[in-house]
Amino acid sequence: MSFDDPTDPPDKEKLKIRLYFGPVRHFYQNTDLRIKLDNGTDFTIHDTPIKERTSMEYYKVWNAKNFGRVFQFIDEPTNTFVLTAQKNKNEYILTYVHPKYLISWAWDEPGVGEHHNPLVRISGTHQGQEVDDYTNLATGNSENRNLPIFPEFRNTYRHIQLMVGYGRVFNILESNKGNKINLNYTPNISVGVHVGKSFVSYAPFENDQQTWYSGFDSKNTIQGHSLTLGNKIKLSGPKDKFGIFVEHKYNYSKKKYSILDRGTAEHFLNYNSLSIGLHIRLHKGKK
Length: 287
Prior knowledge:
The protein has strands at residues 16-23, 25-28, 31-37, 41-48, 51-52, 79-87, 90-97, 101-105, 119-126, 129-136, 152-154, 160-168, 170-173, 182-196, 199-202, 205-206, 209-210, 213-216, 221-236, 242-259, 263-268, 271-280. The protein is mostly beta strands. It has a domain at 10-28 and 48-108 and 155-256 and 267-280: Beta Barrel (Porin). The strands form 3 sheets. It has a 15-stranded antiparallel beta sheet that branches. A 5-stranded antiparallel beta sheet has the order 5-8-11-15-18, with no helix packed on it. A two-stranded antiparallel sheet has the order 16-17. Strand 9 and strand 10 (129-136) form a beta hairpin.
């Protein structure tokens, strides 16, 4: 939605307000994950793969079990909400992202594809004992019970990434200069915070018996900070009535947060994201 007329001269350009919403693909990079717990544990899970959870099945609203679940497509998938204000080629950006990802997940849900049991190297101290070996993170190593097991390690409950940013619009083609289309390029930069709760299932062997600890951390907290670099190309028709855009972003995040109310997890959450969208002008302001 925009309140402007692209044919106005620069000194008369009106404020352009735009709102975007929709799912965005995230491609996460591997990271080292450091875990500290109150039972003599301080180890690193090396080169840990992080799996994207798109949860796109919620967009199949015809499969909803009741009316209330019809609207779960708004908050369940990895959706992004973007509000921009643009004037005189300066664009100010407010972004709300709901990242969804798995570090481990022992169960295979048909049709969802959330099973994630990576083979990783763990080194450090676990329950007071030195460890340095390979294990499947969600199910463990049957030959080495000293290694930790995390049947479920995710961070999605009320997890949001909130960012503010700035972009500069460069016009490549303009319809008021004899062209039938508008084409512009907008590089942008944003800074933000991660807020939410962790959810972890931890199942170590204690005195030769497997013990299960599981649950959400008790508090919503700021879990980390982010820096995002973006590039957007938009192609639109005369007077910006309609158009399409493609945007790529690289996000750098450093996170540290409480788990199980008895320790901390620390890791990077770096990802590339790609979005493709439609632009339709719903209202034109008065001159």
